[in-house]
Amino acid sequence: MPLVPIDASSTLDASEQVKALLLRLHTNSLAQEEEISKPDGKWTTLKALKRRGDAGDAAALADYQQQFDDLMRDKMIALDQDKALFIYHLCRALSATRIVEAGTSFGLSTIYLALAVGQNASKLGPGQRKTAKVIATENEPSKAILARQHWKEAGEEVEPWIELREGDLRQTLASNLPEEIDFVLFDIWTPMVVPALRVLEPNLKKGAVIVADNVTSSAYGYEDFHDYIKTRRNAYRSLVLPYSGGLEFTVYDP
């Protein structure tokens, strides 16, 4: 998709410093995506291994997972700019101040979420403002280091509103969650989506919104998620928005 510069005419409420940082990170992410997607790139080999694995070749599947993890370890592959702007405005509209992001990577989408939380919290009293935060999760230590650097560069508009939990999110999200969660973003390795949702579900407030990225382009990986919400049809209402790769919008309404 074409990259649209974030400038003063944008509806994103942020300083020029933050807008410049976001544009730089989006540009870097897009360049990485284009590089690994080249016909002669690593992605072609991985797709071939994945097809063999899906056909029942266990060794090929294990090889695919190892090579995929190695390839993605230093890749940003962030939320697309239009999706990031959407979740920012969505969280502003929801007055969301208690957000969980499953899959922080280099911290780009977290900046949008933190901007929304900080701006929403500015309308609250001191007591409520204390609980406002984005709980971000990242399992890869090198990515967590860079995410923290990006948030520090973003400054006071962003950094104070983020709590990063490093490690396996099945453990890091198992305690000390907000009593009620307003919004969840899933932009993570798909096998972790349902385990994360199971951990978070008891704390989702009625009307909480869940957004999951690339549900169309990674449809196979999201089968467990879709099966799960179908079994709880009375609790979840969902539709896929027509963004690149598919962006699923789900409301928790038990």
Short description:
By secondary structure, the protein is α/β, with parallel strands linked by helices. 46% of the residues lie in helices and 17% in strands. It has a seven-stranded mixed sheet with strand order 3-2-1-4-5-7-6, with helices on both faces.
Protein architecture, described:
This protein is of the alpha/beta class and 254 residues long. The protein has a domain at 81-252: 3-Layer(aba) Sandwich (Rossmann fold), CATH 3.40.50. Helix content is 46%, strand content 17%. The protein has helices at 16-36, 42-54, 58-72, 81-94, 108-121, 126-129, 141-154, 169-172, 193-200, 223-231; strands at residues 98-102, 133-138, 162-166, 181-186, 204-213, 236-241, 247-252. It has a seven-stranded mixed beta sheet, with helices on both faces. The longest helix has 21 residues, at 16-36. 36% of the residues are buried.
